[in-house]
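Give me the fold.
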Amino acid sequence: MRDIRVAKPYARALYEAAVEQDELDAIVNDIDQLHNVIEQSQEFSEFISTPLLSPQFKSDTFQQLFADTMHSLTINFLKLLAQKQRERFLIAIIDVFTAIVDEAAGRIVAKVKTATPITQDQEQRLIELLSTFSGKQVRLATETDEQIQGGFIVQVDDTVFDASIATQLLRLKQQLARG
């Protein structure tokens, strides 16, 4: 909960600066790149979360790591986070920033959980169905979870569609227990 409270003003400031400078697309790409780096690099995740490194060292490291691949606004933002010792909230800031961008674009996020990764065709069909259902443009956030055994679980806002094998088996078990 504290992460979100800290993240909101930083995410909002980054969004407003990107819009003001007419660089939103570039900043969105940078944020996606940062998200991927955090997910794929345990070392980078530890780097942003450790309080033992000085703010200046972290600021310099952000500059060195991303100077050639990211917009100067993004780099300055990362350096500001380091100076304010808020870089450990970067994941929450990315999440809030993405939600702000989606809301401004009229998109909603549908969280999809499957037992195995879904194909691009399945993903596209699901986007079409959910867009029709919601009346909005849908962006999928997919996750695999073998515990659902098969099928899928989709959450769009407060609505959950649970077509998982695990839930179907549980319902069948409950029906059999009732007689």
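DSSP finds eight helices and four strands in the chain.
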